[in-house]
Input
Amino acid sequence: MSSPAVPRTGSAPTSHVEQLVSLACLAPSVHNTQPWRWRYDDGLLTLRADLARRLPVEDPRGRDLTLSCGAALHQLQFAARALGWTTDVQRLPPGQDETVLARVRVRRTGRAVVVPEDLELLHARRTDRRRFTAWPVPAHRLEDLCRLAAPWGVRAAAVNDDGARFRLELLANQALTALELDARRQAEQDRWVGRTGADGIPAALLPDEPDPLQARSRFRPGLLEDTRMVLHGGDRVIALGGDEDDVAGWLRSGEAMSALWLEATREGLSVVPMSQPTEVEATRREIGCSVLGGTFEPHVLLRVGWQAIGRGGLPRTPRRPLADVLEA
Output
């Protein structure tokens, strides 16, 4: 990936900021709502939550929205490092309104060292909801992924114990049932599925039929062919969270989620977020108690597994035009 010429030191020019924000906006977001806005002024990037894209029924507190913005914040930092820039991040700067989640100063401190493999990784990451294979993810790989959360001040735990996995499956099914029985929640979700514009989840990226032998999906069947070749899934779940269930924790959990997801992609693993169990407050609290043993407040759950060898790649979900998300 080529880059325009830039000074060796000083703040990033607008052309580079546009490139960085474009890469940051490849981040995953709840229902692909892309609920972020950026402003670049005098060498400083400001990340704001786009409350017009909030899901007031499914996500009344803004947890999923903030997690999504945290993922974009991490990908901005990741992209900057890959392009040889340094980032100084101030999260939740004081004296700002609730939509301001972070301020980032991007600058060059020396000779640029571009890492093409990391830039390619940002483009390669996908949310592939097709069935995982039966190959189990080794426990040591899961623990390695969990350790990636620590630099972001986030707690992570792999759910490996059979009893805890069974309990989590029951609780996840309860949360999905609550969604299915709530017409307002279902209608809000459906508004973001099958869209043909620059956001939402295209039907072409959702499996064409439910899998009775794997975790239920919150989404209705789509158009993506998903051949059933194995009898059971070998996926595992990683929980991310912190000591508190608040905006500061959600933002950092979003950053940790992105860091973990990119590394999993590098290793050939597939990641699918499970936000619905944490959207139902009673279920979220029960997961914290009976699955995680009260060790931390869960913010999001991630299913991790292997896709079948030779399975075709997925097209990327659409992205909003840069002019819609960046003011510079």
Observations:
- Strands lie at 10-11, 36-41, 44-49, 86-91, 100-108, 155-159, 236-242, 270-274, 297-305, 326-327.
- The chain has two domains: 10-125, 139-305.
